[in-house]
Design goal:
This protein is α+β, with helices and mostly antiparallel strands. The chain contains ten helices and 20 strands. The protein starts with 11 loop residues before the first strand and ends with a helix.
Length: 423
Amino acid sequence: MLYIEKERQLPVNDEYDVIVVGSGPSGIGASLSAGMMGAKVLLIESQGSVGGISTSGLMSHFTGHVHSNLYQELLRRSALHNTFKRGLKTVTIDPEMLKITYYEVLKLARVDILLYTFACDTIVENNKVKGIICESKSGRVAYFAKVIIDCTGDGDIAYKAGAEYYMGREEDGRMQPATLMFKIGGVDYERAIFPPSFETTVEVPAGEIQDLGKKNLPFPAGHVLLYGSTLPGVVTVNMTNVTGIDGTKAEDLTRAELACRSQMEPIVEFLRKYAPGYEKCYIISAASLIGIRETRHFKGVKTLHSHSIAEAEQFEDWVVRDAHFNFDIHNLDGFGLDPRGCQHHFHQMDGYTIPYGCLVPERIDGLLLSGRNISGTHKAHSSFRAMPICLAIGEACGIASALSVRKGIELRDVDPKDIQKYL
């Protein structure tokens, strides 16, 4: 059965140089860099606050490394609010204070922000994106721009514009599992354990904590990942897990939300019983945005392959440099990491680069890909999806967009060496 909507005229609210859709780390990077270069920028976000997984997703920390002055500046400004505790490998996040930092720098860059607004369609003419259509409490409206940057993670805008893509793993389309982060209070930090990785083993009175998790947590949960926070007695829990989720479908997102929330109380009971220091822990809050690790991989002018990451390849047309993170593929069938063990074969300690062509859709103009939806393979994506690297990708997109507008040229004609001058 089909229902045909009546044709209607939409009001055009405004016209911008650059519209950024999605305000996760890549959207923050894109908005700030375009705004700082003088472009008129609108940042559109479907949630009630900016930051995506780094804030609404209650992510525990920034992990991975990248050469990005913008990223370092955000860390510096956030430290003024005591947002971060610096460790050797990670940077702990206080989500509420990080939101304040994001809003401060977006204001300084003169970026217009529109929250609670869903970008639901694109305006495309002759294979070029000219604008987007949005739905909100204000109604259905159109916005036009010279450049659209897709920072939605799932590539919703690129998909609507008709850009070519494939889902998940190349051979079968399967995608990494989803997680809902949550915070617990009442933890005795003096005695608490903080296993930071799947491979971390910790002996507790009843046995080894990861083995206990596999035996006692509700499948497909089963690993124990616990991270300290910036608040006394508060720990961020990365232990819910649901497989077989397509993050581009509302039905699957709903199923993932319900499944993860059903695991939260059993996880707390497990921690009270087996984890020293957690005997009196309790749930404080859960993320308002579920963590989707993988969906669409778009076809760009260039594609980043895993061998380029493993060999720390240095592309001449780079727009992201000194990116470094392991191959972080979670088990598609249960808890823990990919049983094929790709992460154990990652030995290079040098940073890799990402070429500009990975950000440019092969056949669609007026549009850039940013964040985890850029052109890369399933395995390569498991590295560049780290938030600092996504922010640096967004930074490059913002610069490219501003140069495209300034010079009156197509995005695919922007010289990567010109982008490098601003990085």
